[in-house]
UniProtKB/TrEMBL annotation:
One Pfam family linked to the record: Hormone_2
Chain's role: GRF is released by the hypothalamus and acts on the adenohypophyse to stimulate the secretion of growth hormone.
Keyword annotations of the record: Secreted, Signal
Family membership noted in the UniProt record: Belongs to the glucagon family.
GO biological process, one term: regulation of protein localization
Principal location: secreted
Signal peptide extent: 1-19
Protein name, entry field: Somatoliberin
Top-rank taxon: Eukaryota
Glucagon / GIP / secretin / VIP family domain ranges (all copies): 32-54
Length: 107
């Protein structure tokens, strides 16, 4: 059970008329419990905001990695396309040269 729940239960039970403690003690206990709760609550909120900040940073980095990877893929495709065009042009020039030699032998 979290500490603040325990303290809340104690404060709830001690605030009734059945409490035989001096009047100043429950007030001190309430203030002490409020301080503990406030400090714990601030700590939790700080942890949550830190976690959200880290998640945002990590998602940005992942997005940048995905963009870089996408750029590499596009560049790779462009290089592959250029390479395929060069191979095709080289093959065409070889075929033209072979056809010319074949025509020269026949003609």
């Amino acid at each position: 059970m979290p500490l603040w729940v325990f303290l809340f239960v104690i404060l709830t039970l001690s605030s009734g008329s059945h409490c035989s403690l001096p009047p100043s003690l429950p007030l001190r206990m309430r203030r002490y419990a409020d301080a503990i709760f406030t400090n714990s609550y601030r700590k939790v909120l700080g942890q949550l905001s830190t976690r959200k900040l880290l998640q945002d940073i990590m998602s940005r980095q992942q997005g940048e990695r995905n963009q870089e990877q996408g750029a590499r893929v596009r560049l790779g495709r462009q290089v592959d396309g250029v390479w395929a065009e060069q191979k095709q042009m080289a093959l065409e020039s070889v075929l033209v040269a072979l056809l010319q030699k074949h025509r020269n032998f026949q003609g």
